[in-house]
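Reading a protein record of the kind used here takes only a little practice. The integers have meaning only within a learned vocabulary of local backbone shapes. With that in mind, consider the following protein and its fold in token form:
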Amino acid sequence: MAHRLTRDQARRIIVRAQLLDADRPGDVVEVAEQLGYIKIDPTSVIAPCEHTVLWSRIGWSYESGQLKKAVEVDRLLFEFQGAFHPMSMLPLFRPAMRRHPERESSRHWLAANAAFRADVLSRLRAEGPLTSRDIPDTAAVAQRPDGWSGSNQVPLMLDLLARRGEVAVTRREGRTRVWDLAERVYPADLPEVDDETAAHELQTRRLRAAGIAREGSGWSRVGKAGVAAEVEGSTWRWRVDPEALEAADREVDGRVALLNPYDSILFDRPRLAEAFDFDYVLEQFKPKAERRYGFFAHPVLMGDRFVGMVDAEVDRDNEVLRVNAVHEFVAFDAEETDMVRAEITDLAGWLGVRVSGLA
């Protein structure tokens, strides 16, 4: 029998699962274990995604060096496919790594470049860690540039070998990835997991991070993990994390979170609309004349509701967080205004700059 939930309960479950309630997590690894991943993105209008995601959860006690240490020193997180993941998820990725590449064109490219692959691996074994610039392009067959990659085939080979679990990012120098053999980056004592178990566990982990999601959704990819649920006013078939149900009746406090546009709570756009009545559109790729809120405006979550957007940017030369606009979906009352202003001021303080533009 499906659990019956109100929309308020559904929102509370989502906010708590995403660690955006008052019970802040203690460290970087705790955030990664719960969310499953922390997206890496170089867009730094305010700060890079990986850092603002952690700031919005942990708050003032988060420092960027903590993430670097967890990834590069303690090896509790690893970089894979544009995100930092907890090392506990690596065994769940390995069955897919063993099958990669599954696309026929990629298999043909890899086979045609067998000597190139061997060159890359042997150079890393002898000289690694290395950046892609340190490795010569000896490809026999080249893929055409696609808008994301240039004519140099080394980054393409490294990415493909990473997806196969043969190489891995060992650290970053600024935004540049430094590569090494996976055996020198990943722990040697990780458990082996079969395909069926891995698929089930991945769905369970995704649902734990989502709290509640549409059954069969291609956005959340939770399959039939958890238990069935119905949400008032929704015709969807939902799946809910059983552990999340325990706190469904407890209200979420009114803390404010400023969310990077690539934050994981924003990824499932249909769920945002269904549960929060929030039709979120990232305007980064829109022509300027068509933007309503700003190039990289940050959604504002207050308690369990999205209440506005903050269009702001850091001017490092003048050490200022410049607030261009605070867009209110419904006019804030005095207390709400103070809460949003306080969060913006705290963000500026964490960044080490002053605020400009808050009237």
In short: The radius of gyration is 22 Å. The longest helix spans residues 334-351.
